[in-house]
Amino acid sequence: MKQLIIASLIGLSVTVWAQSTNVKVEDAWVRGTVATQKATGAFMRLTPSANARLVSVSSPAAGVVEIHEMAMEKDVMRMRQIPGLDLAAGQPTELKPGGYHVMLMDLKAPVSAGQTIPLTLTFEDAAQQRFTQEVQAPVRALGAAAPMKHDMKPGMHHKH
Ligand SMILES: [Cu+2]
Q1: pLDDT at 18 over 60
Q2: What's the gap in Å between 86 CA and the centre of ligand 1?
Q3: CB–CB of 140/113 below 8 Å?
């Protein structure tokens, strides 16, 4: 039964002429957060069957999701939003700590190990046709997670 469905899907994509691009998503995970943390990263490896571009990501766990890169700016590593991430046919692109990542912001609740975060990845193929892929990313607790600087509150001095 399953083979029959797959066979008919393949037959369909051939008759539709344009071979549809798909993207293999591997080792997706989300970094666990502490209670006060409102943002975290999602990481994975993306390998497209043909040239494609990751253009957006959404998740029910976060109010805002952006695609970020890390870059050196005057000797300081900073992360910044990019409009999309180009993926070359057959080449794995790593989203990993210290590099490209999906930034989950405005988290609705802290995320911790044992949870699975649904992500919807939207890609654009070479003909600029968009397609989406659902990913279930398990949360990994990382004790070494550096606190985010913009979460620090100034003015908390001790009085002696
Ligand atoms: Cu980021």
Answers
A1: no
A2: 17
A3: yes
Extract the runs of DSSP E, i.e. beta strands, from the chain: 23-31, 40-48, 52-58, 62-73, 76-81, 85-87, 93-95, 101-107, 116-125, 130-140
Q: Contacts for 92-98 with beta carbons within 8 Å, 24 or more apart? A: 92/26, 92/45, 92/46, 92/47, 93/45, 93/46, 93/47, 94/43, 94/45, 95/42, 95/43, 95/44, 95/45, 95/46, 96/43, 97/31, 97/41, 97/43, 98/70
End-to-end CA distance of the chain: 75
pLDDT at 153 over 60: no
Distance 104 CA to ligand 1 centre (A): 8
Per-residue pLDDT tens digits for 65-99: 999 999 888 888 899 999 999 999 999 999 999 99
pTM: 0.77
Q: Which of 159, 118, 152 is nearest to 138 (CA)?
A: 118
Residues within 5 Å of ion ligand 1 by Cβ?
A: 68, 79, 103
